[in-house]
Each structure stands twice: as C-alpha cells, then as structure tokens.
Amino acid sequence: MTDIKTIGVLGAGQMGGGIAHVSAVAGYDVLLADLNLERAQAGKAKIDKFMSRSVAKGKMSEADKNAALARITCVEDVGGLGPADFAVEAATENIELKKKLFKALDEALREGAILASNTSSISITLLGAETSRPSKVVGMHFMNPVPIMKLVELIRGLPTDDATYEATKALAIKLGKTVITSKDSPGFIVNRILIPLINEAGFALQEGLGTAEDIDTGAKLGLNHPMGPLELADLIGLDTCLAIADVLHKELGDDKYRAPNVLRMHVAAGWLGRKTKRGFYDYSKR
Ligand code: NAD
Question: Which residues bear the site annotation Important for catalytic activity (predicted)?
C-alpha cells in the first residue's frame, strides 16, 4: 500500500482549500497549488480565516491551528506538487482543463503516486486515460464545506486497481470522513440526485411558482432539508452547478437533466453565488 505523507492539492478554491485544511489538521504535509503562487496563498489565507473562527468557537486550539497551517506550503503551480505521494485535483469543473491538469500531474509526480480528482461529474476513466498510470487514478469527491461535511464519495475508474481504491478509502477515513462508493457514471451518486433537484427549483423560479424564499422554505419546512435547493446552489457555485448539469445532460442524453435558463443566465451575468456575493440571493448585505 502507498505510504502517504505528503498530499498535493491542485486548485486552492473553496474545495481545494477545504481539502488542504482537513489534510493538514489530520497531520499530513500539504502542498497547495493553483494557477499561480498568489492564488495558492489566497487559498491558504482563507484556510487561516476558517481555522481562526474554529479557535474563536473553542473547537480548535491556537497551537493546533498554527501547527496545521505550518504544514501547508503554497507552491507556484502543478510542477511544485512533485514531492507529493497523493494528489487531489480540485480545479474548476471543466473537462478540457481537467484533462490538461491530469497530464501535468502525471508528469510532475513520481511513479506510483495516486492521482485523485474531486470532480463532481466528469469521468474518472476519461481523466485516467490522459495519464501513464490509469490504474492509479481515482475519484475522491468531497462535499462542501469540506471541514464540516462528513461524506466522501469514491469513484473507481474502469482501470482503477484495488490498492489505489483501498489507499484512497483509508485516507478518507483518516480525514474523518464516511465513504460511499459509486460507479464511474456522470454525476456519480450524490450529484445524480442533487442536480435534478436544483434544476427543478430553477424551473419553479423561472415559471414564477414562487419566490426563491418560497421555494427554499418549501424544501426546508416541507421536505425537512437543512438548506433549500437555491441557497445550496449558491453555496456550491452556480458555475459548478451548470457545468455538472451540462455533463449529466450530454452524457446521459436525457432531457430531464437540462439546466433551466435562469441558471444559465445567472452564470452568464457572473452571478455565481456566495463566492461572487450574488447568486439567487444577494449576499452583499448579509
Ligand atoms: P472554485 O471556483 O472555488 O475553485 C476552483 C479553483 O481552480 C480556483 O481557485 C481556480 O483558480 C483554480 N484553477 C483554475 N484553473 C486552474 C489551473 N489551470 N491550474 C490550477 N488551478 C486552477 O471551485 P470549487 O467549488 O472549489 O470546485 C472545484 C472542484 O471541486 C470542481 O471540480 C467541482 O466540481 C468540485 N466540487 C465542488 C463542490 C462545491 O460544492 N463547490 C463540491 C464537490 C466537488
């Protein structure tokens, strides 16, 4: 079994930052990369902020926070992830981009190192085919926010070997997560269920069935969901939701997965949810 000491995280956005956070807290050394050093550092600054809130709430000691942050090293780009034993790619949900990044990870990391993707919908088999080590490529789908959400969905590509799957499962458990395993099918298990719900909420909104608040309150108090589908979409990122819906629609070929126009228009306007302070809701005043 691969001995994992150093975890490389590619993409320092909300998910990559969260993965770096939980990995450092669990005692792993972390290398964090994004498009450039500044973006990786901005990702680390957000981890610092998140951990400081945990300290203020008494959930983490100042010493543990400092020790965890000291284990996270920001690097220039994917090439800086070379010393990692295990890499998790968490860059923007885009097939061509991820294919390119898997090629680059394959070139940067030593033979035998595992390459995982946090993709929400893209085929792991397809990403593995970009590398010289398809048997060492696996899906490791964390939930948002990573330090809080307990689930990791593992995806075996067609060629993923047992050792890779078992090492990834053991890592997820060490990070304090509960694991489910999905076949390599568009959207896997979680987003196969979630995205049609978010899409339908968008159709309800654009057809004027009710306001965003009505729709979300309906789901929360009527279905006992902790968050409504529109506020959850804002948390995930509307660009990410649209990208997943488009993969589901294209790959599964069923119109039930088509995205509502209101989602597409919000993305076109740059209203991507909480990360841009505007999505289905306006967060600038909240
Ligand atoms: P995000 O927009 O917060 O972050 C994406 C990051 O990728 C950005 O920092 C961006 O600069 C970086 N990036 C873009 N091109 C890059 C490149 N060429 N090299 C290195 N970094 C690059 O998005 P996110 O929400 O963190 O999503 C990242 C991945 O995680 C996606 O695949 C998404 O589907 C998946 N995911 C998202 C959620 C969610 O709720 N948002 C949940 C599970 C999985």
Answer: 141
Helices (H), 129-271: 162-174, 190-206, 212-217, 223, 229-236, 238-252, 261-268
Q: How far is CA 52 from the centre of its chain?
A: 22
Catalytic-residue membership of 191: yes
The torsion angles phi and psi of 119, rounded to 5 degrees, stand at -55, 145
Report how far residue 272's alpha carbon sits from residue 264's, in angstroms, rounded to the nearest whole number: 10
Query: Based on the domain organization, do 217 and 178 belong to the same domain?
Result: no
Give kind and range of the element (H or E) at residue 35. none
Residues spanned by the domain of 67:
6-183
Are both 14 and 132 inside the same structural domain?
A: yes
| Domain contains 94 | yes
- 6-62: pLDDT as tens digits: 999 999 999 999 999 999 999 999 999 999 999 999 999 999 999 999 999 999 999
Q: What mean pLDDT, rounded, does the chain reach?
A: 97
Residue 200 annotated to the active site: no
How far, in Å, from the CA of 244 to the mean position of ligand 1?
12
Over 80: is that where the pLDDT of 1 sits?
no
Q: Which of 162, 183, 204 is the last residue of a domain?
A: 183
**DSSP-derived pairing of the beta strands 72-74 and 29-33:** parallel
Catalytic residue among 23, 117, 118, 120: 120
Residue 144 has pLDDT above 90, yes or no: yes
* Residue 174 sits in the same domain as residue 32: yes
96 and 140 inside one domain: yes
Tell me the CATH number at 255: 1.10.1040.10
Angstrom distance (rounded) from CA 178 to CA 124: 20
- Evaluate if residue 2 carries a pLDDT over 90: no
Residue 12 DSSP code: -
